[in-house]
Design brief:
Elements (H helix, E strand, L loop, with lengths): L2 H11 L11 E8 L11 E6 L10 E5 L1 H10 L2 E4 L8 H9 L3 E5 L3 H12 L13 E2 L5 H8 L2 E6 L4 E8 L4 H18 L7 E8 L5 E2 L3
Parallel strand pairs: 3-4, 3-5, 5-6
Antiparallel strand pairs: 1-8, 1-9, 2-7, 9-10
Helix pairs in contact: 1-6, 3-4
Length: 216
């Protein structure tokens, strides 16, 4: 997939009928084919660091012990310390989970984190994930990790042959949206057993528009 193809498609979306009185987001849809998701080797969770933010505020939650409590409060959007665990119930955790994109957690309290948060965060795919660097040492510097997570998108290839990801907004420079799209596309292709042969088609849409195929 080339930049010129994406430029044509993005501009094709910018029609008067698609215009709204707010800044819409761009969604990328990658439809797959000839991929058996019953085979565990084909099931993937990808954490892709994009070159640019996506035009949406990404909220980071930190679940920490006393060692990281102070530094976490300086950089994370939500901080939950072990002292707060006894007062948390499912309703409170669901509320936090609904407004948080990624959770990081201190490695030495992970058994407690799993016990308190697992039933809520697990089904939502939001448990702190080592693959994304979200399980950290008690002396970790959280600032670089949180900055990276603000540029990270999680892609799951597990239950359906279609991937959807927010890649930009109308207020962003077109070039940044294109670079985000290519970062996701290239990362997905690399993990597919037949690479581009497993790609059925690639679509783009605005928040309130119908999807259109990437123009060749």
């Amino acid at each position: 997939m080339q930049k010129t193809e994406l430029q044509k498609t993005l501009r094709a979306l910018k029609t008067p009928e698609n215009k709204r009185n707010f800044s819409q987001k761009y969604d990328l849809i990658i439809n797959l084919r000839d991929l058996d998701l019953k085979q565990q080797d084909n099931q993937k969770d990808l954490f892709i660091t994009l070159p640019h933010e996506r035009g949406k505020a990404i909220r980071i939650g930190a679940i920490v012990g006393p060692e990281l409590a102070q530094s976490a409060k300086a950089v994370a959007d939500t901080v939950i310390t072990t002292e707060q665990f006894p007062g948390l119930d499912k309703k409170k955790i669901r509320k936090i989970a609904s407004t948080t994109d990624f959770f990081i957690a201190q490695a030495n309290i992970m058994p407690e984190v799993a016990k308190v948060f697992g039933r809520v965060l697990g089904p939502r795919g939001k448990m702190p994930n080592p693959k994304a660097g979200c399980v950290v040492a008690p002396n970790a510097n959280l600032a670089p990790l949180i900055e990276r997570l603000k540029h990270t998108v999680k892609i799951s290839i597990k239950t359906q042959l279609s991937i959807k990801a927010l890649v930009g907004s109308e207020t962003m420079p077109e070039e940044q949206t294109i670079e985000n799209i290519l970062a996701i596309y290239d990362a997905v292709v690399k993990v597919l057993p037949k690479e581009t042969e497993n790609i059925k088609n690639v679509l783009l849409k605005l928040t309130m528009s119908k999807p259109i195929k990437v123009v060749a």
